[in-house]
Amino acid sequence: MMNFADHWIGYTALVVFLFAYLLVIVEESLHLRKSKPVMVAAGVIWMLTATAYASQHQSHLVAEILRHNLLEYAELMLFLLSAMTFINTMAERNIFSGLRTGLVSLGLSLRAVFWLTGMLAFFISPVADNLTTALVMGAVVMAMGAGNSRFISVACINVVVAANAGGAFSPFGDITTLMVWQKGVVHFGDFLSLFIPSLINWLVPAALMSLTIPYEKPSSRTESVRVKHGGYVVVMLFLITIAGTVFLHHVLEIPPFLGMMTGLGILKSYGYFIRRKELNEWTEVPAFDGSVSMGVEFKPAVKPFDVFISMKRVEWDTLMFFYGIMLCVGGLGALGYLAALSDVLYKDLGATTANILVGILSAVVDNIPVMFAVLSMNPDMSLGQWLLVTLTAGVGGSLLSVGSAAGVALMGQARGIYTFSAHLKWIWAIALGYAASIAVHLGMNAALFSP
Prior knowledge:
Blueprint (H helix, E strand, L loop, with lengths): L7 H18 L1 H4 L4 H21 L3 H34 L2 H10 L5 H19 L1 H15 L4 H19 L7 H9 L11 H16 L20 H21 L4 H25 L3 E3 L5 E3 L12 H6 L3 H19 L2 H13 L1 H11 L5 H11 L5 H13 L9 H9 L6 H5 L2 H18 L7
Antiparallel strand pairs: 1-2
């Protein structure tokens, strides 16, 4: 790659990226979807990059670099498309609603709910991703703590920290860990070395926050929810797909997206049988105006199960955001900025300091571009250091409520109760957990830091 970091084209590309990312940061205020500015910025940056390379008669290199970036994005997108479709199908079959109802019906004390929701968030997020897990556990917290805003606020913080911590030791728990796994710098089994550090990251602030939670029992009611036909089979297919994906990648070195897309094909095939059954049981319900509509058992209301509805409800804005961010960062890398940043971070400061700072940065800036930048720099690091940056990028977002998708989603779900300032009051406890998890990793996995 060539270096245009000190060229007017490089400066222009950097300004374009920073302006686009500023629009992403103020998304909630402008109501402008985050994918829009970064997709435009990606196109502009690569046009500038092509112009710079053409001035040196190296236009052919631009296409090669761009295709390499596109391949990395395509693998990530196909993986996430299949995973999100599975999650949406489980939600449509009432799997998560049934879980929420079951937990609420246990009649636990508020402190027991605090610990149970945190524990479930920690252990479910490695499979169902931290965003989905946070939303499900957040619904439980709000149902159990109805009328007690103080409990809801602290319990939501606990769920966010637990979900982010749980996602750090599994490639399926967070986008950053998935990117690291797909890049091949850390193998699937090696992520388990982060289990204890991740657990400490949650337990330290959880223990401190739990002291403010009373033992009183809430009086909460919830309607019974029945899991729809095939719901549990979909869960089993998802688990089998994950196991098969790991097996194919480990034994045959097949990229993970192929295993997930094969599982998606199986899900779609099984969805055919669910749909046939519901079509056979379709009963027309008279409406007040004399027309007929589908019974409330089915969702969407007007027709039986359709797996393509689950695919339609995939977070396309998020997937397009990843496209824009990965190509923006790739373009800046082609202009020489990532090489310069790598020299400052990993040569001048050292890998350990740099990786700890990456985690702190991810509390302010989305951890996706941060991790993609690190992977694009590809610094020469030991396995221990790669695990360290995976840990810090995954849990660093817990420091602020806006630092992770889980936190942002819960702020919307518990609007006015779980807020930025409420989370900020506990940043000291979360920071203690962050420091403790790093210390535990450095101590427990010291052998992994040798070259």
